[in-house]
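Example for tutorial group B:
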């Protein structure tokens, strides 16, 4: 086996204990408000359903640009849609600064030929996608065909052109922390701009121990090469308190340089409403009814 695929062994209990410590951090009011606004700016609002319509995508784009009329809040980082909806989102978001991300490579299963995956990617890029969220060939990974997985990521990266590539590992399927670390290292070395936990279609999705493990893979790569790689936990992060725990973990693991949407994203549409409710509470002392927020 190539040395590239010989990732370090992971102490699972130690990983869980380290991740749990970030939940004990005390965050004061001003820092909390700043953290909540930062979390909002890092969200990829997502609609990835078979029943998606052009109208639903336009509505989500409007929400991305107008999160709350009474609060001084940023826009989200990106809208994430299927390739055939990229042009709709691109037009709706014109001039806003909000990125258009598109899943590709036979999302969410990844079960297709390379030719189809490359065509899927090029379709999204040609329609204006700023970012591509690809899923690895999980079956090939489970077979131990790591070179295939590496080569495919590299080919998709090339097909992305100027678009940034987020590589989805589907960590809930990988079985062990050792396998998550190996998949992270493969994706990073193959050219991923971001590594991402999950498609959001299976459980478990993002967890703090798994995200910490992936952050440490990014840290090790940065210390060896000086190259920054982004991180995107996706699925299962739905409340503001948890988002703040993730940001504390990010800052203490990778440092201030990663504390922006350029290098960290939340794949969690439901999170936006809870963060907005918490910010409204900080401003007025009372919670605003959930009826005031659109259901994504």
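The residue assignment follows.
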């Amino acid at each position: 086996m190539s040395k590239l695929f010989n990732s370090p062994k992971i102490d699972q209990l130690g990983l869980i204990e380290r991740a749990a410590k970030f939940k004990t951090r005390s965050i004061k009011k001003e820092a909390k408000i700043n953290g909540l606004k930062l979390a909002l700016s890092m969200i990829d609002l997502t609609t990835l359903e078979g029943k998606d319509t052009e109208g639903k995508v336009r509505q989500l784009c409007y929400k991305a640009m107008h999160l709350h009329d009474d609060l001084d809040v940023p826009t989200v980082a990106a809208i994430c849609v299927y390739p055939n909806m990229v042009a709709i989102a691109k037009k709706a978001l014109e001039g806003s600064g909000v990125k258009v991300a598109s899943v590709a490579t036979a999302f969410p299963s990844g079960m297709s030929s390379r030719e189809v995956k490359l065509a899927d990617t090029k379709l999204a890029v040609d329609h204006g996608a700023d970012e591509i969220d690809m899923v690895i060939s999980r079956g090939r990974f489970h077979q131990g065909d790591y070179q295939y997985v590496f080569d495919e990521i590299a080919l998709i990266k090339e097909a992305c052109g100027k678009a940034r590539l987020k590589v989805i590992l589907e960590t809930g399927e990988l079985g062990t922390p050792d396998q998550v670390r190996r998949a992270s290292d493969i994706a990073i070395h193959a050219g991923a701009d971001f590594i991402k936990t999950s498609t959001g279609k299976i459980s478990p999705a993002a967890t703090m121990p798994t995200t910490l493990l992936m952050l440490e893979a990014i840290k090790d790569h940065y210390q060896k090469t000086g190259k920054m790689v982004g991180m995107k936990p996706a699925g299962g992060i739905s409340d503001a308190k948890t988002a703040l725990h993730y940001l504390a973990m990010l800052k203490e693991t990778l440092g201030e340089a990663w504390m922006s949407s350029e290098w960290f994203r939340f794949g969690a549409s439901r999170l936006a409403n809870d963060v907005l409710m918490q910010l409204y509470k900080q401003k007025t002392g009372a919670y605003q009814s959930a009826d005031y927020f659109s259901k994504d």
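Residues 3-292 form a domain with the TIM Barrel fold (CATH 3.20.20.70). Compare this with the pattern of hydrophobic and polar residues in the output above.
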